[in-house]
């Protein structure tokens, strides 16, 4: 199990008690949003880094198109991955670890902090 699986499970367990029918959708959206924000952070970092090194590898329009395509792929992959069997396997593995060890507000602030860091990278370079 990787970090995204653990975060998915914690979000899923938190919202399962409150919104049982929407818990899987919320957790899948969270993991997808987190992965896309990390992708954006890396993309901005490398774009600014390559710009400072005077390397012309890809135009801005092509980079944004690639980002949108990869984002769609990430949402589809997570929808397929966490839709059924994988979630049941995660549930079985995490049954012995019933209590949530992460604060839900800190989990939701993680992608927001990553987007803030992305904004700092955009302004700094």
UniProtKB/TrEMBL annotation:
It comes from the Bacteria. The chain crosses the membrane at residues 26-51, 63-80, 100-122. Keywords: Membrane, Transmembrane, Transmembrane helix. This is DUF4271 domain-containing protein. It comes from Algibacter miyuki.
